[in-house]
Design brief:
With 260 residues, the protein is an alpha/beta fold. It contains 8 helices and 10 strands. The chain is globular and about 50 Å long.
Length: 260
């Protein structure tokens, strides 16, 4: 169980004499074990700030984050982050990049060759173990980054617009890949995106945020079945969810849709 309690984040003023910048304002939210939750909202609304606080990279100015009742105030091995850019080391092969997660956790060069081979096969990179990042497509690089995150078997996967830099076709392929992987391994996933359709396709719940200072405008359960079918985006139910989210995101809706 993840709990965000009156989570608030201020940043220092951008100019001398200016007030601090309020990025996230009293956010209350919870996530269950194995849940897939997407946060959507306009640029600058605090989505990534929430993810960074949950990762332990930043501390709240007010409020707290609890993981199974324990305070989150620093990074931990049960939480891993996948960023928009794959962040692979260019001088390392696919195999060595993926092995790095185990190496960092154990403080020595990992000897778990079978485990690494297994996850390489799982993410569809078998045959590319000795390739370097520059030899891979953008989607393949992101698969390697996700494999590196999953190799340590984390409880929580924090994903900050991981497909945002990909073309439309590759993005769709990666969405399918991620859902297939999640359905097999069932980590808890917090997924940040600007793409409303992507959020509805992936999530059990979609949390919609207001412009800065970021508040929760709405928390919408997505009841489209699991495993999710890929023609679901053509269904009337999907289109209703999309219309609901887009209406909440309209500037004129912010004052009336903010949750208490």
């Amino acid at each position: 169980m993840i709990e965000l309690k009156t989570l608030t984040k201020f940043y220092p003023p951008t100019k001398r004499g200016s007030p601090p910048v309020l990025a996230v304002d009293h956010v209350n939210m919870s996530m269950d074990d194995g849940e897939f939750l997407c946060i959507v909202g306009p640029s600058g609304c605090g989505k990534t700030t929430i993810l960074n606080m949950l990762a332990g990279f930043e501390r709240p100015s007010q409020g707290q984050i609890l993981l199974d009742g324990n305070l989150v105030d620093k990074p931990g091995p049960e939480r891993v982050v996948v960023f928009q850019q794959p962040s692979l080391f260019p001088w390392m092969s696919v195999f060595d990049n993926i092995a790095l997660g185990l190496t960092l956790r154990e403080g020595k060069k990992s000897q778990h060759e079978q485990k690494i081979d297994a996850i390489i096969d799982t993410v569809g990179l078998k045959g590319f173990e000795k390739h370097f990042p520059y030899q891979l497509s953008g989607g393949m690089q992101q698969r390697a980054a996700i494999a590196r995150a999953l190799i340590t078997e984390p409880e929580i996967l924090l994903m900050d617009e991981p497909f945002g830099a990909l073309d439309a076709q590759t993005r769709t392929e990666m969405q399918r890949f991620l859902l297939s992987l999640w359905e097999r391994l069932r980590p808890t996933v917090l997924f940040i995106t600007h793409d409303v359709e992507e959020a509805i396709i992936l999530a059990d719940r979609v949390v919609v945020m207001t412009p800065r200072p970021g508040k929760i405008a709405s928390d919408i359960p997505i009841d489209l079945g699991r495993p999710r079918q890929w023609d679901v985006s053509l269904s009337p139910e999907f289109l209703r969810y999309k219309k609901t989210v887009l209406n909440i995101l309209r500037p004129s809706a912010h004052s009336s849709q903010v949750a208490p």
